[in-house]
């Protein structure tokens, strides 16, 4: 079976594929155009897909009728038309769990960085503007005993809540499609409505899976209803927030600060005015960027393809209903 991998991944994954007797096809250069990427896909049986530059939609499946399986090198699958893949009998694998700690670490880092204006103060040092002691200049805020609101209390959200509870004694509230009984038991988390979440949170951290219906969910209307001391954290998908509205809310003091590992658009422009604000920290989507997490993702992605090649169910499948007829 011929497996196309569009970018280099850790050898722990490629070694697994080779040991399973699968043929790996690499692109001959980086930064493929859509047409180049599509041509590679047309000549493969399965794909290990890294990144979300290109969409797996109906037009893709029409153009690549020989694709039998897709293994994503990510947890999220919003760039895949899951319904269409399922209709065509194509399993789509993903990589849950192995990056939960790493991604929650970044959310936790952003929360603290914003609370203490770390990016702004680091820039001052780099630019030689350390200055004399000023008791009132660019003060941060403490997080002890504050309320952390989690939008999407799944694996990553749970890790973020647990860290915040243990480190700062934060009260945890959350909004989910379903209640998280484990979090309520172990972290004393309280399930609240979306309105209560945005109105009560001192820190609001987004960890939900993104769907097109949620595009711009965090917008001008929402930011105006948040606390003036609130910190907005997004490590999930940039599509959740409307970035121009976020800038206005921060610049006007409607909310206190923001930490982003995902942006809208992504990648964002280097001259985006939000980068000039003292109450913002932005990272270039590095949530899973640890040796441990990326190796784990490679193992899961390879394992999904290997299982498929043996006629077995993918261990981690975003559309398990594809197997219902088997």
UniProtKB/TrEMBL annotation:
It comes from the Bacteria. Residues 110-287 form the D-isomer specific 2-hydroxyacid dehydrogenase NAD-binding domain. Residues 4-319 form the D-isomer specific 2-hydroxyacid dehydrogenase catalytic domain. Gene3D superfamilies: NAD(P)-binding Rossmann-like Domain. Keywords: Oxidoreductase. InterPro entries: D-isomer_2-hydroxyacid_DH (IPR050223), D-isomer_2_OHA_DH_cat_dom (IPR006139), D-isomer_DH_CS1 (IPR029752), D-isomer_DH_NAD-bd (IPR006140), NAD(P)-bd_dom_sf (IPR036291). Belongs to the D-isomer specific 2-hydroxyacid dehydrogenase family. This is D-glycerate dehydrogenase. It comes from Chryseobacterium arthrosphaerae.
